[in-house]
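Please check these two lines:
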Amino acid sequence: MKVIDFYFDFSSPYGYFMSEKIGATAKRYGRTVHWHPVLLFAVLRSVGLPPPFEHPIKLEYITKDFARSAKQSGIEYALPPTFPASTQNAARAFYLLNEKAPQSAIAFAQSVLRKFFCDGLDISSLELISQIVCSQTDALGDLVGVSDLLKTQAAKSLLQNAIAQAVDKKVFGSPFVIIDGEPFFGFDRLMHIEQKLASS
């Protein structure tokens, strides 16, 4: 099957919205989705762009737009009290799962996103991320084992490599979708993504 590459940050509401739609969209056109969580601030720093919520005027607007976009798309959403959250533990866990239990990686990512944007849980918590991993698979060990694994240089290197690859692909936001070499930035590009898939 042809691939859709989906880049996102676990702390991005728009990334969460796209995660709720991209799988079904891909399936309609006989595609499979490769998920690529990144640390958006690290990606933006690497390409010389400012953080997305740096200016208070933009933050005020975009916070309202999160809620509006969710409502119009029929997606459950509430701005988490810990927004924006540190997401390195979630991203490291994803890549570890993608190596050792790939069938669990996407389900893990969806669970993390929903626990953050629906339940308001603090996904920066190492304990919470370890619990979510263990609820999906025992491939990474028990709760203590997963927590220890997420602190290793191997886990850090997987995420660092993913960020470097995203920079090489000229990713500069979340969500960022690439289809047959053509990039689409933003949840509001979903209609354009459908048009691209329909014509491919």
